[in-house]
From TrEMBL:
Organism domain of life: Bacteria
One Pfam family cited in the UniProt record for this chain: Esterase_PHB
Keywords, comma-separated and alphabetical: Hydrolase, Signal
Cited InterPro entries: AB_hydrolase_fold, Esterase_phb
Protein name: Poly(3-hydroxybutyrate) depolymerase
Coiled coil: none
Leader sequence segment: 1-35
Length: 536
């Protein structure tokens, strides 16, 4: 996936949008029925009888898949990569990532990359490169992909060949920059969300056939369990967000594996803008990648780690770290923060790692489809749903149209563990833009948080939500902040009691007094509002 571009090249948001997710391969088979995946269930990563481990990824996820394979070749026995280049192509430089590892403006210096790999191996910074000899590697480049150009993927194939890997390189499909899947809603040559394209082929059968040697026909993808687990437990320092990863990851575990069969493990890495928390993308990659179907019939667990966007221009589109963002100079070798987080998950699934401590905290992201804002006159008349959410975020305060804005965010609070007493809870909001100071207009104005058990009306935002009664009015407050994120005061005891442990809880944010003039802020554009709940 695409990193943000330096200002001298063009806007980072536009550039990151180019490097999204990449394609797969051929081997046509019957079109699958496309049964819905099982709903995620909260859990932890348990140990299973796992023999071999492989990685797969698309674009930024392809780069991360290669980093995992090369850095830990003693663990990973092969890799499948779509629309990405050779190991550590960027060499820690954003400009190189953009101009040599996606475009061909710059020479990516393949011989130097090979030597750097051998040098790291000699120093013990990665596993011995001798492990790569004979490993199956699947590479794919679509002829309609102008985001990661074909010579870059050619170099990936060449790179692995220099270490004796068995490379199967598919260049025969007119695919755009997307993961190719029989379940894709997009046409083959498209490059657009959700970056899941249908090309009349079974790319997953091709890549898994090469990695595993042979595969049984796919099943329904509904015979196992989709586990939603806490990624904080595996992040160095205990904070997934600090390394641009989401709070939650997923693992699909077929029934045969949970019953004790010897299984394989595939680590599947999404591309930019495909992470669970990215603008409500949710589990579309997890459900649409057409891997769970093969997992059911081939004794294979699929681990879906999740990257997440930063609130800054370091990584606004939730790409995996393949160019050294957030100052992680070890991103492609032992000690890389994201690599070590994923390796912790792999060890947990193999039963060789230290189990994470039981968590006493749950962090919930708001439900994008049910979030929104409502604007009205100061007395509540003429209420209407705001329309700038996708462009600017959720509005609070008085806008340039003279209307007063209130924001509604929704949470699935059934995910708070049953049988645990809530000790405290709070909201975190991240500002994207604004004008004026609504806390000072009038002086001492307060941004209050109302709580509604269930939904204010229907769970989708509607005009009546502006003045609909709350279960608890003013259950918390958020003090003035002009940039970054802010944490609310703890919810009052009454507000905690109003949290719906059986379903949805909605929060309405609004200023106690209408600002006298234009004074507003937008939140929730790039980073969702979160509800943190601590319990005992």
């Amino acid at each position: 996936m695409r990193p943000p571009r330096p200002a001298r090249l063009r806007g980072p948001r536009r550039l990151a949008a180019l490097l999204l997710c990449a394609a797969a391969a051929l081997f046509p088979t019957a079109v699958p029925a496309g049964a819905a995946a099982p709903p995620p269930v909260p859990g932890t990563l348990q140990g299973y009888d796992i023999g071999s481990v492989f990685s797969a990824g698309v674009s930024s996820g392809g780069y991360m898949a290669t980093q995992l394979h090369v850095a830990y070749s003693g663990t990973f026995e092969g890799s499948a990569v779509f629309a990405s280049g050779p190991y550590d192509c960027a060499r820690g430089q954003l400009a190189t990532a953009l101009n040599a590892c996606m475009d061909t403006v710059q020479n990516l210096q393949l011989t130097a990359l090979e030597q750097a790999t051998r040098d790291r191996s000699a120093r013990g910074q990665i596993d011995p490169v001798e492990n790569l000899a004979g490993d199956p590697v699947y590479a794919f480049s679509g002829s309609a992909d102008t985001t990661v150009k074909r010579p870059v993927v050619d170099a990936l194939s060449d790179y692995y060949g220099r270490f004796g890997a068995r490379v199967h390189y598919d260049r025969s499909t007119a695919a755009g920059h997307a993961w190719i899947t029989p379940l894709g809603p997009n046409s083959c040559g498209a490059t657009q969300t959700p970056f899941l394209n249908k090309c009349g082929t079974d790319a997953e059968g091709a890549l898994l056939g090469h990695l595993l040697g042979s595969v049984a026909a796919p099943g329904s993808g509904t015979g196992g369990s989709l586990i939603r687990f806490d990624q904080n437990a595996y992040a160095p320092g205990g904070s997934a967000s600090a390394i641009s990863m989401g709070a939650e990851g997923f693992a699909y575990v077929p029934r045969s594996c949970s019953d004790g069969a010897r299984c394989r493990l595939l680590v599947a890495l999404h591309g930019c803008k495909q992470g669970y928390t990215y603008q409500g993308f949710g589990t579309r990659f997890v459900e649409g990648a057409y891997l769970n179907e093969y997992a059911d019939t081939n004794d294979m667990i699929v681990l879906y780690p999740q990257a997440a966007a930063t609130g800054t221009l370091e990584n606004p589109n939730g790409c995996w770290n393949w160019w050294g963002y957030l100052g992680d100079t070890a991103y492609a070798r032992h000690g890389g923060k994201q690599i070590e987080a994923v390796m912790g998950m792999v060890r947990a699934l193999r039963g060789t790692g230290t189990p994470p401590p039981s968590s006493d905290r749950t962090v919930l992201s708001s439900t994008d489809a049910e979030d929104g804002y409502v604007k009205a006159a100061a007395d509540g008349s003429g209420a209407a749903v705001g329309t700038l959410e996708d462009l600017s975020g959720l509005a609070l305060g008085r806008g340039t149209d003279g209307k007063v804005n209130r924001t509604v965010v929704s949470f699935d609070t059934s995910r708070i563990p049953a049988g645990r007493e809530i000790a405290r809870a709070w909201l975190t909001v991240t500002r994207s833009s604004g004008s004026g100071d609504p806390w000072a207009s009038p002086a001492g104005n307060r941004l209050l948080v109302d709580v509604r058990t269930g939904c204010f009306g229907g769970c989708a935002v509607e005009p009546a939500d502006w003045s609909a009664p709350a279960s608890v009015a003013g259950g918390a407050r958020i003090d003035a902040f002009s940039s970054g994120s802010a944490v609310s005061a703890d919810l009052s005891a009454e507000a905690v009691a109003a949290l719906n442990r059986g379903g949805t809880t909605q929060f309405r944010l609004g200023f106690a007094s209408a600002p006298a003039g234009t004074a507003y802020l937008f939140v929730n554009r790039d980073t969702p509002v979160t509800l943190t709940v601590e319990y005992r």
